[in-house]
């Protein structure tokens, strides 16, 4: 029927005509609301960035005024949101054909790509400058590099080029503890390098567990995720390998002195459970049991990371530190 309109068309930014001096020109008017622009910032990812950056601040050997600490965290959060926005702008074509992402603001037609690009660039520049002014330029430089790494190196290159995209690209999500420490002390030490390593090694098993379930989405979008390129069996082996590496690395804060007895207990227990779930993913390869194993690992991996960093915040921020072996 000629009067019918598909859902994407009906939700799309609409065009209006106006007189431009030499004739009428078409102007695209966005239908986006405030919540749509917030969605561009990937709030759930932003919350993880803020949490890990706060941990970097708390374990830092230095002091910062609470107001400046809050301002620095706000800048880091906005920078993380800017990265997500630029990622959504570049990946709009991929998002449109994946069930998990088809309702994002750009493929849903609520925000135009040009608006998303302008929004992301404005927040990127603003967050870096603001962090430099309220903290220091080392922290600002690390934030700028993180935005560049995620938006350009990962989104524009790695994601569409190599099945190791998540492994290398995971560095973008691992920098916030270092940025947080740098904001307090103007330096980066081994403590937050270890936190970087934990997040970096955690990312592949976390994301590949999801990729195993959503491999059809990535195949339709032409994204070379590991399950589509190397197969699900190899992906399961890689998940188990990285989890075997993650479990001991997760204990390092306690062994290096900036995590206490509480951290040691939590990291050992949750690391063992991560290994058990990864082993289940490795063994269960067919049907609902395989999908359930993947979802269990994906869900618990989030609890694992938040748990480790929450314990560090509790030990340093609330006086719960009991050094390992009396160190």
Automatic annotation (TrEMBL):
EC main group: transferase
Keywords, alphabetical: Cell membrane, Heme biosynthesis, Membrane, Transferase, Transmembrane, Transmembrane helix
Lineage, broadest ranks: Bacteria, Pseudomonadati, Pseudomonadota, Alphaproteobacteria, Hyphomicrobiales
HAMAP family (alphabetical): CyoE_CtaB
This enzyme's EC code(s): 2.5.1.141
PANTHER family in alphabetical order: 4-HYDROXYBENZOATE SOLANESYLTRANSFERASE, PROTOHEME IX FARNESYLTRANSFERASE, MITOCHONDRIAL
Membrane topology: Multi-pass membrane protein
One Gene Ontology term, aspect cellular component: plasma membrane
Similarity field: Belongs to the UbiA prenyltransferase family. Protoheme IX farnesyltransferase subfamily.
Task of the protein: Converts heme B (protoheme IX) to heme O by substitution of the vinyl group on carbon 2 of heme B porphyrin ring with a hydroxyethyl farnesyl side group.
One GO term of the biological process aspect: heme O biosynthetic process
Transmembrane found in the keyword field: yes
Pathway: Porphyrin-containing compound metabolism; heme O biosynthesis; heme O from protoheme: step 1/1
Coiled-coil segments: none
Further facts: Carbon 2 of the heme B porphyrin ring is defined according to the Fischer nomenclature.
Molecular function terms from GO: protoheme IX farnesyltransferase activity
Gene that produces this protein: cyoE
Stretches that traverse the bilayer: 45-64, 70-90, 111-131, 137-154, 166-187, 193-213, 239-256, 262-282, 294-314
Subcellular location: Cell membrane
Name the record gives this protein: Protoheme IX farnesyltransferase
Reaction(s) catalysed (UniProt annotation): heme b + (2E,6E)-farnesyl diphosphate + H2O = Fe(II)-heme o + diphosphate
